[in-house]
């Protein structure tokens, strides 16, 4: 199968849905995500909006991922650690590599890697308050 680059919202929807199917089934990450997210259908739309904003600069996402991740960390009693972010990132890269190839695919990997570092640091800073 010849892979193509991420070109549009339909591709992002495929990416997000495939990826979060893996997350939900993961032994470590699944209980965290499934315990926090109650409405997966609307959450997947929100995440598709987020990645469409990231990759195509179409302002679809208006949330604050830092605050959301800090709230999740609070709910998890500050047990989220770099391993969780590493597992998330590995599954993200794996899913991208299975489905796509090209510049936007590389951008999706790069942005996720940078965001994971920033989000963990912001969660950690929030613990110090």
Key words describing this protein structure:
Globin-like, 74% helix, 129 residues
Folded structure, characterized:
It is built from 6 helices and no strands. The chain has 129 residues and is mainly α. The relative contact order is 0.17. Helix 1 (9-25) crosses helix 2 (29-36) and helix 4 crosses helix 6. The termini are far apart. The chain is globular, with a radius of gyration of 15 Å. The model has no long low-confidence stretch (mean pLDDT 95). It has a single domain, classed as Globin-like (Orthogonal Bundle).
- Broad shape: globular
Give a count of the beta strands, DSSP E runs of length 2 or more.
0
**CATH H-tier superfamily:** Globins
Low-confidence stretches: none
Q: Looking at CATH, which topology would you report?
A: Globin-like
Mean pLDDT: 95
CATH class identity: Mainly Alpha
Which percent bin holds the helix content?
Answer: over 70%
Radius of gyration: 15 Å
- What is the element string, with H for helices and E for strands? HHHHHH
Query: Which CATH-level-2 architecture?
Result: Orthogonal Bundle
Tell me the domain tally.
1
Q: Biggest sheet, open or closed, and with what strands and sense?
A: none
Termini, distance in Å? 51 Å
Helix run count: 6
Which range does the strand content fall in? under 5%
Q: Which structural class matches the secondary elements?
A: mainly alpha
């Amino acid at each position: 199968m010849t892979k193509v680059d991420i070109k549009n919202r339909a591709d992002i929807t495929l990416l997000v849905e495939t990826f979060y199917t893996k997350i939900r089934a993961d032994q470590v990450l699944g209980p965290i995500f499934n315990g926090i997210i109650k409405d997966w259908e609307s959450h997947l739309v929100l995440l598709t909006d987020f990645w469409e904003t990231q990759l195509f600069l179409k302002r679809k996402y208006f949330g604050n991922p830092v605050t959301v991740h800090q709230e999740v960390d609070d709910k998890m009693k500050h047990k989220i650690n770099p391993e969780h972010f590493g597992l998330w990132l590995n599954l993200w890269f794996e899913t991208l590599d299975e489905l796509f190839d090209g510049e936007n695919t590389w951008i999706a990997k790069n942005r996720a890697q940078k965001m994971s570092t920033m989000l963990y640091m912001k969660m950690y800073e929030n613990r110090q308050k």
